[in-house]
# Entry
Amino acid sequence: MIPFGAQTNSDLTSRLPSETSPLLRKTLPSTCASLPYHNQYVSGVRTKLDDPRLAHTHRHLRIYYQNVRGLRTKLLELSLALTECDFDIIVFTETWLDATIPSALLNSKRYVFHRTDRSSATSSHQRGGGVLIAVASDLRSQLITHHVRGLEQVWTKVNCSEGALLIGAIYLPPNISSDSCQRTLLNESLLDISSRMKSNDRLLLIGDFNQPSISWCQTASSDLASGGQLIYLTPSSHSSAGLEFIDMMDSFNLFQLNGAKNHLERTLDLVYADVYAAQLTSVSTHVDPLLPIDLHHPPLEILSDISVSSKSPDTATVSRFDFKRTDFEKLNNLIRNFDSSSLVNNSMSIDEIVEELSAFVRAALACCVPVLMPEPHPPWSNERLKALKRKRVRALRRYRKRKTNAARAVYSDILNRYRNTNRSRHSKYVFNLQRSMGSHPKRFWNLVKSRRGSKAAIPKTLHYDGMTTDTDAESCELFAARFSKCFVSSNNCFEFLANAVRDTPPDVIDFPLLVVDESMVGNAIARMKQSYHAGPDGIPACVVKGCSDVLAPLLTMIFNKSFRLGYYPVAWKTSWMRPVLKKGDPSDVSNYRGVTSLNAFAKVIEIVVQGALFNCSRQIISPLQHGFFPRRSTTSLLFEFVSHCKRSLDRGLQIDAVYTDFRAAFDSVSHPVLLAKLTKLGCSEPMVCWFRSYLLERCFCVQLNDSLSRCFVGTSGVPQGSNLGPLLFLLYINDVTTVINGCRILLYADDARLFHCVQSSNDCDTLQHNLRAFQDWSDRNELILCVEKCQVVSFSRCKSKITYDYHIYGKAITKSECVRDLGLLIDSRLSFIDHRNSVISKSYKLLGLVFRMTADFSDPMCIKAVYCSLVRSVLEQDCVVWCPYTANHISRIEKIQRRFTRFALRRLSWIRRGTMPPYFTRCLLLGLEPLSMRRAVSQCSFIAGLLEGSIDSPSLLDALDIHVPARNLRSSMFLSVANARSIFGRFEPLTFAVRQFNANFARFNFGDPLRSYRDVLRLNVIDVVSCSS
# Structure
């Protein structure tokens, strides 16, 4: 399916659509008539476009196999080799990879990687092993999930013209290759795979089986039903283990095709095929290895005449607009010619006006926006490199045909010239990216992002509700089926609504009919995030921002008309939903949530309404709500919660905290209840009508790459990813704090934690009573509590705790000793040892990733930028809450940056091995501060933010007391420090931060911005408070 915001070359001679106004045709020059109009709507819903399905072409397979003896140190070499080869499938054994090395480091868009790394389930050894299959991205393939554990294997299925080809890669370590348990696992694996094969499916099994006791001799057989000849190798062995292996493979009627021997005249790497695939497959030693050869394992080239299905491009080549090069002067002049008389004399409906304006802008874009040219692959490619690649292909073809030494010498010469040119071009490309980081940072970070990969990347193969897909179009439908089930039906009964809003305070806001002017619309456009990606209307935010002066008057008239009529245009209700992984298995569709992408003009009106509604409602939003509110964050919530708990524990008390979880809270918001709450809060009737029109009958389509799903209507919820949705949700959930009495509650959006100081069972009863009130509130507001995900933690440092079974809906809540709260691991003793260990472990893994990503970087400043983005950000996330204060923990964290500084400066020519300058000097050379100093700056900045109002937390501000000494002293602290009974209480977050702030108060001025104070602290060697001070 052709995506919106794209055009096809075959459409460039077409005319504007029939619904385009005559005025538009007269206004735009003739060159605009070539604009394709892909965003066709009927009653505001996009009609089904012509969907040229991917045609299929058929070709024969070229497979490469090699035991690589480790890829960890060969990633850069392999990524270059993948740009030079043209194999359809690549199989590697002994990859030695692990979870810290993403496949994206191979930096190849031409292949889809399937791999199995060594784990405790497959081997007692932590390192070594591992198998990988890389399938060309234009082949229709999918990963096969096998049910046999304990074997290093990976299977993939490639669609053929008839049936499918199942390809497996297996590695049997030499120390256990003769083990009967391994043979049993291999037998079970082959049984599992054969049970899934259909009658016309074929099988190819490749790997390092480590069977040196088996010898092979070539055999030809013509006793076939097809009448053809099958050439294979027959085995013989003098060991019982070898004979059992032979019998097992014979029981599956598999034929071994590889006769290539290593330097010891042994064959360790085997290629098995079923009888049909064996007739069409040949194996030979490859003359052009991708990676250095291991003498024990010669590389193999497997040629198969099995015809596989490949995706061919659409008959109309897809071209996209390069909105970054928009001619805004010309575009503004064209939009000025739009006839706005229909807005003045009300001759057209608002839906027609919106359609007319959107079509006009899209048509004008054809004259002002060039077509985005596809980037070369690889990015450093040029005509000379392409010519050498063509010569290499021709020379290889001649060598295969002639098999002479002269042809091989010609091929080797051209191959060396091509490889040297490719590597030289790559080095120059990386060097230029490093030099341009200051002027073109996005290019540099695109390279970093491509090498790092993304955990949120959606796999090609997805499953949901018993269905499995391997194409974007089918995956879109799976996501649509999943997201449509998140919506719920609402109760419109008057008695039910009256009961739902009983906790909502009446008439506390004044939100009359909204009337906007051009300055308000212009400010809203200025607040839009810059984006070069078009939404459902085909118009990106950058176009609206670039044409703000000419669009603001038109949008002002449309917005005011929309408010007067209490009607939201239907075209703006259509949204795209993009799947975003929450957590868990990325191949399971149920682990995703949908984030909406809106029309450009819809974003502007949402910003206008959100600003006006927030200004009149910000005073009623509870200070206990830290989500989606300015000057509040996850850090402010965690700081407030942990400080309260630590102070209580220091006094020998116990805190019981219940963490609740709503099921799809944003998608489950009841529209009638939300509208009833807005009415009771004091929202005017015209605006309530407008909100009703805004919420009801919203249409969604799931977008995945260039595919769109069927449309489905949302019966509940507020749009996730919109500007107005989060504020509406806060107003919906705001009155939950009024039903909590006798204990405390803190909220971050829909994540609630109820906690209470427990000294007896009566206190536990009080918390349970509030849980029941919380449960009743959720029932009245049609939000479903997911009891399975709720947790209760008893925070205490006492040897014996008060135990109590808390319930929701009559079900016991799971008790935990450690809980992850907004990314922070909080244990029951509030020691944060688990969190610090987790952060250190994660940082070391990311540091190793940085080392591999920047192995070919020469500029230390570029390496530093990657480190600060990926590693230091993890070390400093919410550090004011869990800040270490013992020398051991401080040293463990600092070692990470110490190691990085040595790596970043390793290539400087004036530094000799063993003469590396001290750590503090290395930090100065790289422009870094020690991590302990940065944490101290963060603590000082947090207290300064509370005092200046840039952090909004009334409870924390109330806890700050200005110190007034009884008599004048030479040195005195500014803020009073609470007395603590132990070292534990002395370093609770608030007390620790206050002591840090007092030590550096001389550099603080109330009149200066917070950023200035932070910069002053970083430029000076500040006093760092620790356990020893």
Q: What stands out?
A: The longest strand covers residues 56-67.
